[in-house]
């Protein structure tokens, strides 16, 4: 019998293969308006001042679901509407691609209140994460 080896890294081709295999499996389980070759869409925006990155957002979507991976704004530029502008614009772009819902995660020491002000609701909590006394909140928002 051949031995199976686990490697610490993957190539771009191997990552694409893994995504494609999971996508094929998912399409055997989920029926709907989605086609097998529907791509994962990637959205990103970067804010700069004097060629220095001061904020940005990374997100992706699949099956009409937007996932906000990272939203960050430098402390000097917080509470000035930049994070809201980034999130709202990514949501607009996702809606144009027929997304109907968004989800994300945020820690208690990050931006839960910020997301709630923009219509996100908690649907799950992982307590004592990343350490005792803290919580990770899973949040979602349905687009109208």
Structural class category: alpha+beta
Largest sheet report? 6 strands, mixed
| CATH architecture descriptor | 3-Layer(aba) Sandwich
**% residues in beta strands:** 35-45%
| Through-space gap between termini | 55 Å
Instruction: State the helicity in percent bands.
Output: 25-40%
Strand order of the largest sheet: 1-2-3-4-6-5
**Please, what is the average pLDDT?**
90
SSE order: HEEEHEHEE
Provide a compact summary of the structure:
The protein has 144 residues and is of the alpha+beta class. The protein has helices spanning 12-29, 82-96, 112-117; strands at residues 41-49, 52-62, 65-73, 101-107, 121-127, 135-142.
Structural overview:
With 144 residues, the protein is an alpha+beta fold. It has one domain (36-142): Gcn5-related N-acetyltransferase (GNAT) (Aminopeptidase, 3-Layer(aba) Sandwich), CATH 3.40.630. It is built from three helices and six strands. It has helices at 12-29, 82-96, 112-117; strands at 41-49, 52-62, 65-73, 101-107, 121-127, 135-142. The protein has a six-stranded mixed β-sheet. The relative contact order is 0.12.
Keywords:
alpha+beta; Aminopeptidase; 6-stranded mixed sheet; 3 helices; 27% helix; globular
List the helices and strands and how they pair.
Layout: H1 12-29, E1 41-49, E2 52-62, E3 65-73, H2 82-96, E4 101-107, H3 112-117, E5 121-127, E6 135-142
Parallel strand pairs: 3-4
Antiparallel strand pairs: 1-2, 2-3, 4-6, 5-6
């Amino acid at each position: 019998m051949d031995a199976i080896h686990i490697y610490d890294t993957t190539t771009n081709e191997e990552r694409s293969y893994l995504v494609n295999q999971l996508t094929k499996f998912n399409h055997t389980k989920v029926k709907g308006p989605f086609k097998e070759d529907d791509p994962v869409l990637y959205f990103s925006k970067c804010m700069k001042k004097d060629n220095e990155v001061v904020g940005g957002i990374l997100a992706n979507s699949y099956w009409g679901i937007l996932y906000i991976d990272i939203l960050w704004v430098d402390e000097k530029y917080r509470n000035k509407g930049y994070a809201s502008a980034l999130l709202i614009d990514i949501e607009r772009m996702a809606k144009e691609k027929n997304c109907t819902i968004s989800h994300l995660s945020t820690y208690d020491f990050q931006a839960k209140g910020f997301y709630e002000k923009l219509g996100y609701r908690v649907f799950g909590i992982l307590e004592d994460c990343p350490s005792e006394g803290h919580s990770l909140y899973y949040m979602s928002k349905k687009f109208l």
